[in-house]
Design goal:
Blueprint: E1 8-11, H1 15-26, E2 31-34, H2 41-45, H3 48-58, H4 60-67, H5 72-94, H6 97-125, H7 140-148
Parallel strand pairs: 1-2
Amino acid sequence: MAKHDVDLFVIGAGSGGVRAARIAAGHGARVMIAEEFRVGGTCVIRGCVPKKLLVYASRFADDFEDAAGFGWTVLQFLGALLVTHELRHYQTLYGTFASFIVLVWWLGLGTLLAAYAAELDVVIQRHLWPRPLRRPRPAPADQLSTTTGVSD
C-alpha cells in the first residue's frame, strides 16, 4: 500500500468538504482532506457567520431603546442572575473566551425578546387576535385544483 493511498481525497475543508469526508469515513472509506487555511471554510471563518454577528450587533442599540417600554429593566435584573449562572458554567469549559460567548448569547436573547415584544405590540394594536392555532382545512374543491393543476 502506498503512503497516501486513500479512497476519497477532499479538496477544501469547508462545510461541504468536511461533511463529505465524515460521511465517507463513516462508511469505512479512507479519507484525506486538503485545506489551505483553517477548517470551516469561507462562510464560517470569513463570510456569512461573522457578517451576521456584525449586523445583529449593529442593531442592539436601537433594540435596547425600544425594549425600555416593554419592562426591560425587570428582565435586566433577572438576566444578570442568569448570565452569572451561564458564565460560571462556560468558564469551566472555555476559560476567558466564555465572557465573549455569554455576552453574545445575552445580546442575542435581548434582541429576540425585543422582537417578540414588538410583535406582541403590533398584535395588540391591530387587534389581530384571537386566531385559531391551526389553519382551517381547504375545501375538497381547493384540494382538487391544487393537486391536479386544474383551475376554474
